[in-house]
Design a protein that fits this description.
The structure holds 2 protein chains of 2 kinds. Chain A is of the alpha/beta class. Chain A has one domain: Alpha-Beta Barrel (TIM Barrel). Chain A is built from 8 helices and 11 strands. A 7-stranded mixed β-sheet of chain A has the order 7-4-3-2-1-10-11. Chain A has a two-stranded antiparallel sheet with strand order 5-6. In chain A, strands 8-9 form a two-stranded parallel ribbon. Chain B has a single domain, classed as 3-Layer(aba) Sandwich (Udp-n-acetylmuramoylalanyl-d-glutamate--2,6- Diaminopimelate Ligase, Chain: A, domain 1), CATH 3.40.1390.20. The longest helix of chain B has 14 residues. Classes of the chains: A alpha/beta, B alpha/beta. At the A-B interface, α6 of A face α2 and α3 of B.
Amino acid sequence: MKTYRADLHIHTLLSPCGDLSMTPANIVSEALRKKLDIIGITDHNSTRQAGLVGMLGAREGLFVLQGAEVSTREEVHCLVFFENPAELELFQEYLDDNIPAVMNDPLIFGDQVVIDEKEYIIYTEEKLLTNATNISIGELEKYVHARGGLFIPAHIDRVRTSIYSQLGFLPEDLNADALEVSKRSTPEKFSRIHPEIKAYPLITNSDSHYPESIGTVYNCLEMKELSFGEIKMALKGIDGRRIKKKC
Amino acid sequence: MKITDVIRELGLKVLSGHEGLENEVTGAYVSDLLSDVIGNGREGNVWITLQGHHNIVAVASLKDLAAIIIVKGIQPDEETIRKSKQENIPLLSTEDDTFTVAGKLYNLILKQ
C-alpha cells in the first residue's frame, strides 16, 4: 500500500468565481509543487474544463478526478466524479438540460471560459453556472451512483449552500460516498458539533479558486495504486484501503 | 383560525396530510433555509417555502408547525408526500409566488 495526497475540490477559470490564472496547466503545476498525487476538478455545474486538466495531469503522473460541483434544486452544493470521459459527457448533457436559462454577466460574476492546450478560448458558457439546477439532491445521487460515480456533499459546515444550511440536517436516506468539511473547520471539529457525520467517510479539500490555495488542505488516501476504483475503496475503507489521519 | 380556513381563503390545493387540516394557526414564517426554520419557526406557524425535499416535513414536525405551503406550483418530491401523510403535516400548494401568498396570509391573519 502507498499513501497519496488528494485535494478533491478545485475550480478552474471556467467557474465565474475561479481566477483566470486557474488554467489547466497552472493547476497541474501548482498541484505538483504542493506534492499532491490526486486532484479533483469541480467547476460549478460544468465538467467542460476537467478533460484537459486530466490530460495534462496524466502526462505528469498527477491523477485527476473529473467531475463538477453541482448546485442542486435545494441549493446544496455536491461534488460528483465519474470514471470515464463518456459518462462525463453524458452528465454534461444532463447538466445542460437542467441549468436555468439565466445568462451570465461577466462584469458582475466573472468570465466562464473553456480553453485548449494552447490556452485559446474554445468555448464561452453563456448561462450563469452558479445558479441552482433543477436536479434534486436525491435525483443527483441516484444518477451518479447508477453510473458508478462518486457523490460527496460539499463544505457541509458552511452557513450557505451546504446540506445543513439548506436541509437543516442530514436526510436519513443520504447515500453519500463521503462528506466534505471545508478548510474553515476540520472533520474532527465539525463532528464534535454533529456526531452523526461520523457515519460517513469525512474528507477536507481546499475549494481553490486561486493557484496559491491548491493543496492548503488535503486528504491522505492509503491504497494500492492511483485509480478511480482504488480511491472509491479508500473512501469506503475496503480491503485495507483507508483515509489516513496524516501523511 | 384553522388550516381549513387558510385553505378556503387563499384557494390552496391540499397535496397531502389531510389529518392535520384542523390544526390551529398561530402565525406564519417564510424561509427557504431549513436551518433557519429550525431556529425561528414557532409552534402553529404556517411555513411558506419553495423547498420540496422531504426534510421539510421533518422540520415542520420538529417545530410543531401547522402546515407547509409550497409556492409557484412546485411539485414536492414523492418522499415528501409520503412523509407528510405519516406525520400528518398538511402540504398545501399554490401557484402564487412567495411574496403574493405571504401578503394574502398576512392580511388574513391581521383580520383575526
